[in-house]
Design brief:
Layout: H1 2-19, E1 32-36, H2 70-78, E2 83-90, E3 96-98, H3 119-122, H4 152-158, E4 164-168, H5 173-185, E5 193-198, H6 200-209, E6 215-216, H7 218-231, E7 245-249, H8 261-269, E8 273-277, E9 280-281, E10 284-285, E11 304-307, H9 310-316
Parallel strand pairs: 1-2, 1-11, 2-4, 4-5, 5-6, 7-8, 8-11
Antiparallel strand pairs: 2-3, 9-10
């Protein structure tokens, strides 16, 4: 029994030495900001399901920005965001509409499935039509969002210095192929695409067709993190964690071998970027959205911090607004 105990202690000591962050040099750099949907109207995540109309449960507005608009993205970039996340749908007239919802009924004055509606029709809609913070007594954004749903091409053109994480909302492989063709004809836009994620079929098709591009879907994330939890204590990084974007919900982060510094060093050596989110629970994962949430960001963290409140988190991380002032915040 003594020999067994001694062997066990040796194994535990070796595992500790291999994985402790106390003996790992933190990767150089500061946290980077990933602004989910730009700067936008936020809502309570409690009891939100896939079919919940979140525009009908926004908090009282603190600003005039609507998600996935060029104004909201510019505002996030002006406040220090390094990457802006946006959502796309490939329309029948072969354009990428930048809009979150699968259908139009919640946020707009239109109806129907977003991807089945021509961009020419989407351009006529008021994307602020359905927002209310008081159960429908008032609709503060009605009339202010008409014509404000952009195409992906318009985003790239209007914000040439921005970087974007593109979320495919469907499982249509042709979306990935279409994005690859778009970037082939406009190579100047390639540097603006930080990565892709979402539907597995379009995500994997884009990654297949665009060498060097990073991205993830549910399956690749589970493969990376699941295998790393299983044998990452050895120092071996699973192939699924190489040259990719690694999503880490902050409540699961302590389960990762060597979190934070040793894990970060291993992923950096594997050519991957870490994106730290808020706690995962139910169908949704929250962001790092308040001063209290920043306690979830490790000291010396140099990855990306996913936030729904770039306007709040950016100054807390030492970012300063650009000299330009966006008009939408003064309306």
């Amino acid at each position: 029994m003594k020999k067994v105990a001694a062997v066990a202690l040796v194994v535990i000591a070796l595992v500790w030495l291999l994985n402790t962050s106390l003996l790992a040099t933190p990767p150089a750099g500061a946290p980077k900001i990933l602004a989910h949907r730009g700067i936008h109207q936020v809502f309570d995540l409690d009891d939100v399901g896939n079919d919940t109309c979140t525009a009908e449960r926004i908090e009282p507005p603190r600003h005039g920005y609507l998600e996935n608009t060029i104004a909201s993205m510019r505002a996030a970039l002006d406040r220090g965001a390094d990457v802006v996340e946006l959502d796309v749908h490939l329309t029948p007239d072969r354009q990428f509409a930048v809009f979150h919802d699968w259908t139009l009924d919640c946020r707009t004055n239109g109806t129907g499935v977003t991807e089945e509606t021509p961009m020419s029709k989407l351009k006529t809609l008021d994307i602020g039509y359905g927002y209310t913070a008081d159960g429908g007594k008032t609709y503060p954004f009605r009339g202010r969002g008409t014509g404000q749903m952009p195409t992906l091409t318009e985003v790239f053109t209007a914000l040439p210095n921005g970087r974007f994480l593109i979320n495919f909302k469907s499982e249509r492989r042709e979306e990935g192929a279409t994005l690859a063709v778009l970037l082939r004809f406009h190579p100047e836009w390639r540097k603006q695409v930080f990565g892709v994620y979402g539907g597995s079929a379009p995500t994997q098709e884009t990654l297949r067709l665009i060498p060097g591009l990073k991205g993830y879907d549910r399956q690749s994330t589970l493969a990376c993190l699941g295998r790393y939890v299983a044998y990452g204590w050895t120092g071996i990084v699973p192939e699924a964690c190489h040259d990719t974007l690694i999503i880490v919900p902050s409540n699961y982060a302590p389960l990762l071998w060597g979190w934070p510094n040793r894990f970060a060093a291993r992923m950096q050596a594997a050519g991957s970027e870490i994106i730290l989110l808020g706690p995962h629970g139910g169908d949704f994962t929250s962001g790092i959205d308040s001063a209290a949430d920043l306690s979830r960001v490790p000291d010396h963290f140099a990855g990306y911090v996913w936030t729904n409140r770039a306007e709040t988190i950016a100054p807390l991380l030492g970012r300063h607004p650009a000299a330009s002032t966006d008009q939408a915040n003064r309306q």
